[in-house]
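Quick check before the chapter quiz. The format below is the same one you will see on the exam, so make sure you can read both the input and the output lines.
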Amino acid sequence: MSTKMKAIVAAASAAAMALTLGACGSGNGNGGAAGAKTAVSYSDVEAALKSDKDINLTMWAWSYDTMKPSVEAFEKKYPHIKVDFVSTGASADHYTKVQNAIKAKKGLPDIIQLEYDALPQYAVQGALVNLAGDGIDENIGKLYNDAAWKNVHVGDGLYGIPQDQAPVAAWYRTDILKQYGIEIPTTWDEYEQAGIKLHKADPTKYLGFIDTSGNRQFIQMLHAADATPWTVDGLKDITLNLTNDKSKKVAEFTQRLIDEGVLAAVPSGTDEFNRAFADGKYASWIDGSWRGGLFATGNPELKGKLAAALPPSWGSSADDVQVGEAGGSLLSVTTTADTKEKQAAALAFINWVNSDPESIDAFQTVGGSLFCAAKSFQSDSKYAEVDDAYFGQKVNEIYFKAAEKINTNWSILPYNNQMDSDFKDIVVPQMKEGGDISSALAKFQDKLKTYGTEQGFNVTAK
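Here is the expected output.
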């Protein structure tokens, strides 16, 4: 989620959360308290596809071009279910439109695209249908990657169907590593030693960077280290623990890497950063799997000079690696779909689009390759064995392995976007040589507790 979009979602949803948290229960319309579980069962979903009764659905998404062929294929196969599919433009515009419709209590479509880190906020506001009807988890959940399926749950509720995900991977400048006699590291200890060697040989180069434009990279590291900086129980109860031993270890280690010249503390996404990366100032990039697809278009000059790998392990060997995530989206059914028939048809549609092999094939041929959350994608050898001309590797094999290694012991804060804003205000200024990231985490935790309490959550800090 972009910085601009995070600010929009955080500002728009804060007031709504404060109003709705105190009244969690069943809700109807385009807002209100968290909704009761749908009466739709898995057998109803199957029946919706076989029915001859016309159903009209509306859907908003920013990934219009990517999804349009799949939507058309569904309508051709099931002509009685019509989908009025509307592009909401850029993702920031999408969230603005969704929040405005919720606030106005009118105009929200039956189906909306969301990102995993935005989902809890909308579930709390009561804008989404809890899809956890009889047989849904058992029969639909098995179609998706375990981590992705966990991501569409908030508390005991199911609030969407996973579409894509972004397991963290690493990309290394093999030409630079070869020049300095450095092997691709498999653990963070190896990464540190490799980075020290590189920076000592050429002080203008760093093995990598810690991104100061937001929380994403550092939170990925906490996720992969199984640090569990917070847990969320249900819709209202949050426990913060950013001062636990594992979180401290990640903070202190990151600070050491900055002080040693292994990592440069810089914001990504700027022209200056992009030029520096292309020029070889940073010899690696650790991010979500989607990043790999951007190199071919953004850095054609690096063709054959980048190699994909699993990210470094916090354990003693590559076998111990756990992986964080950096994005991913889903499709949710909103409370606008206020009849059992509509909810069944909507659920049948979003599940088909996100898991049926025909739809998966369409995703791989439009606008690049979408890293689908469906097992029908991640277990298919025809995708794993594709030789990527840019990398000269079967990179999907690496991304699929990373997806298997995602640490599922993870919760998403229901005010994740406010968390990012506070992170930039409190933690980022300490991401510098001689900084104190560990102490900043304690102050960061205090701010998160204060904000959460003000919004009506029950927040405990350890």
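If your answer matched, good. DSSP finds 20 helices and 14 strands in the chain.
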